[in-house]
Amino acid sequence: MRLKHKFNEGEFAVLAEIEPPKGVDVSGMIANATRVKGRIDAFLVPEMSNAVMRMSALGASMILQQKGMETVMQVCCRDRNRIALQADLLGAYACGIRNIMAVTGADPSFGDHHQARPVYDITLQELLQAVLTLRKGKDMAGIELQGAPDFLMGSMINAGEKGKSPGNLIDEMNRKTDAGAQFFMTQPLFDLSTIRDFLKQVDLQKIKMIPTVLLLKSVGMARYIRKNVNDIFIPDSLIDRIQEASDKVRECIQIASELITAFNQEGFSGVLISTLGWEDRISDILDERKG
User: What one-character DSSP code corresponds to residue 97?
Assistant: First the structure.
């Protein structure tokens, strides 16, 4: 378990998000992952992000694991009840998946199947607790398991969430830690000053925090996020920098690489590179990285 080893040794981990295909042709997913195999410590496999129907995270994670690539399988409250969630988790562990990421999941109204009915049988907190219970050798009904999964479990923390004080965010992290979360991923970050008050209350030597480095694709994308996404702040200086660049895509790649270096120097446990479908650019980001 490369990711767990890096956490235990205090080494900086680099993760990358890789979307399962919308279909059964996995050649593109495998090619993109293989291109950076050995340079990425684990691939985060989302479970139908933004409620868009795709191959399941379980299926895609199994395929990547079979190719010798470590994965972090996303587990989502939206689509399955507690029985199915536990069944998938047991199946995942038996197939060699050792890292999971528990999320609530976007409402189906955001996706491409608006008639779908969300499940939300259990909350995110209950999902975390359920995984912890499985790790202790029992299911949610209290029945003994024939072999318990020993997952490394992560959860999200929106460190820049507007309307939440740093104290409330710390309380949320503590509740999730008590429920079994062992590391935390953040929303995309472009300016550490926006979460500086939160970081003052966090011991990064003890809390494994993984900021998300989002690859911007254009100045238009940056402006849209700045205007419409409340909890992601992009400085005007960054937008101006992309606007003024002769090669805007290359500039966006450079910005992502610089953020990785900055987060490493800040003392975070690692980063998650998210490219929103531009997985073929992950290698470019890594090539530009310094430190």
Answer: -
From the list 54, 52, 56, the residue with the least C-alpha distance to 114 is 52
Specify the amino acid at residue 51.
Answer: A
pTM of the entire predicted model: 0.96
Contact present, 260 and 213 (Cβ < 8 Å): yes
pLDDT digits (tens, 9 = 90+) for 253-291: 999 999 999 999 999 999 999 999 999 999 999 998 765
Strand partners, 271: 14
The Cα 87–Cα 230 span in angstroms is 36
Specify the long-range contacts of residues 170-174, CB closer than 8 Å, at least 24 apart: 170/198, 170/201, 170/202, 173/202, 173/207
CB 203 within 8 A of CB 170: no
Per residue in 139-191, pLDDT (tens digit) is: 999 999 999 999 999 999 999 888 889 999 999 999 999 999 999 999 999 99
Q: What token pair was written down for 142?
A: 């209290």
d(CA 17, CA 130): 25
**Phi and psi (nearest 5°) for 186?**
-105, 170
C-alpha 170/C-alpha 183 separation (Å) is 13
